[in-house]
Amino acid sequence: MQDTISLITLESLNLSTLLPMIVLCVGALFIMCADMLKKELGRNFYIWATMLFLSLSLGFAAFGEKNESGFFGMMTIDSIAKLSQIVILAASLLFVPLSLCKKEFSEHRFAEYFTLLLFAVVGFLFMASTTNIILIFIGLETASLCLYTMIAMHNRTKAVEAALKYFTMGALASGFYAFGAMMLYALGASADINEIFTNLAKKEFEPLLGVAGALAVMLGAIGFKLALIPFHTWMPDVYEGSPAPLAGYISIAPKVAAFAVTVRIFEPFIAENILWAESMFYILSVVTMTLANLMALVQTDVKRMLAFSSMSHAAFILCAVLVSNEQTNSAIFVYWILFMFANMGAFALLWAARNDTNLYDVRFQHPFVKFSGLIKTAPVTAMLMALFMFSLAGIPPFSVFWGKIYIMSAVINKGYIFLAVIMALNSAIAVYYYIKLIVYMFLTKPSEIDGKIYAQNASLTLSVVVAISAAVTLGAVLLAEPVMRLTHYWTL
pLDDT tier at 42 (50, 70, 90 boundaries)? Predict the structure, then answer.
């Protein structure tokens, strides 16, 4: 017993692999303790403290050593972990300043809101930085429980309803994951994903029905987190009930973490050209991409339209996992980086346009009619929203176009010509519902309630976030190649 204990040293733990998460945990505890000691602390203190710790964590994630393992081999800081951490923390840094809006909402008065955010980010980072199926589950549950509570703290009936729906479907996803992880552990005799694959390969993936069933259940669990059809039912309602910035954040950070898990679990099977594994991904990506776009066409609310569009974008990125070559991991993160700025910019403008009551529709906060004639009542807002819509539609030369081209070129290089055609057709369908909002803004008469759309919630920090997002979206012509080279360097 003493010999075993003596082998556990700080060097063997390699705590540097945990630094981004440790910083955030310290930050969360600091905010809670500061709130206990001094009750008069306001929203500004919580926001700037949160941004400070997120920035420190981003620094450790970006400049820390790569290709290291720690914590008894459960932490794996490889290219996937590095890029996932950077994107998740960058999305968090774009999200937090949106709390400094003109009006102070109930959730922003509580230190617990920002503490929960930091713990949620810790969960995402653990999901992206480990090959251990147990630690992935812990990260998944930590992040999910925090997000459920953050949504409910908005203190509106629809927010509570959205949180309950998210919780119910999230519990189902957790059950799927636990069952799939149990099956993989039983079949692969290990909790490490790489060892599971090695052990299954030695047995030539027998029993076939058991291995295929385990991966199908695991894909179902990940499908819930990525809102892939038919596991998508929670997403439009959660978007509708959540505050716009949080809805935009949910469309990025949890999905990046889920994609990191997807790549770790499924890429080895696809790289081995296992037909049934490829078929699962092929069918799921095509069905989700197509049906999500068709459902987005009939939406009357901008936020719900963006919910279905983000499902389509996730399916588009899923095609890169299906291809599984040297180019695809880089392409996945290029797409997420470019999509992140365009999507957060669009949701930030929706947050700026928030009203206390539904002035334009009985049910929806952001119906298309709300933006009628916006070019006349708020021309800068209309042009910025049009910029983000053009980018999300994949129209050149704006940011998301370069991400789509990068993924489609990887798909074509691997010989999936028919899949590339489907991706192109779906991109053409998506143009319609993005342009629909632009038509409302530029080619229709202003609403009778004009003048109330933008002035309600805009602030300096919100304008800065929108400006940064617009600069990246518009400057993608110059930024796309450096981003591609940088992500390619990280994936070597």
Answer: confident
Q: What are phi and psi of 68, to 5 degrees?
A: -125, 155
Q: Alpha helices of 298-325 — where are they, by DSSP H? A: 302-323
Nearest to 384 by CA among 300, 285, 470: 470
Q: Give the C-alpha separation, 360 to 368, whole Å.
A: 9
Going from the C-alpha of 443 to that of each of 433, 437, 446, the distances in angstroms are: 15, 10, 9
Q: Please say whether the beta carbons of 255 and 246 come within 8 A.
A: no
Tokens of 54: 């997120």
3-state secondary structure of 242: coil
Q: What is the DSSP letter of 398?
A: S
Whole-angstrom distance, CA of residue 152 vs CA of residue 346? 23
Q: Which residues contact 11 (CB under 8 A, 6 or more apart)?
A: none
| 3-state secondary structure (DSSP) of residue 192 | strand
For the four alpha carbons of 437, 443, 448 and 452, in that order, the dihedral sign comes to positive
* Tokens of residue 97, six digits: 């300043």
477: three-class secondary structure by DSSP: helix
Q: Which residues are bridge partners to 185 per DSSP? A: none
Q: How far apart are CA 96 and CA 484, in angstroms?
A: 27
Angle between helices 302-323 and 417-443 (to 10 degrees): 160
Q: Residue 209 corresponds to which tokens in the numbers above?
A: 């029905």
Label residues 30-44 b or e (16+ Cβ within 10 Å = b): bbeeebeeeeeeebe
Q: What does the alpha-carbon distance between residue 381 and residue 402 come to, in Å, rounded to a whole number?
A: 24
CA distance linking residue 189 with residue 142, whole number of Å:
26
| Helical packing angle, 399-413 and 476-490, nearest 10° | 50
Q: Which of 337, 150, 148 is nearest to 252 (CA)?
A: 337
382-417, pLDDT tens digit by residue? 899 899 999 998 888 888 888 888 888 888 888 888
| C-alpha to C-alpha distance for 224 and 454, rounded to whole angstroms | 34
| Domain locations in the chain as residue ranges | 14-490
Please state, rounded to an integer, the average pLDDT across all residues of the chain.
Answer: 83
Are the CB atoms for 392 and 415 separated by under 8 Å? no
Beta strands in 58-114 (DSSP E): 68-70, 75-77
The model's pTM is 0.90
**Any idea what DSSP says for residue 107?**
G
Alpha-carbon distance of 311 to 291, in angstroms, equals 9
Q: What is the rounded distance in angstroms from the CA atom of residue 442 to the CA atom of residue 463?
A: 22
Q: How far is Cα 30 from Cα 24, in angstroms, rounded to an integer?
A: 10
Distances (CA, A) of 58 to 137, 146, 397, 445, 446: 23, 20, 29, 45, 43
Question: Radius of gyration of the chain from Cα atoms?
Answer: 22
150: Cα within 13 Å, side-chain hemisphere: 28
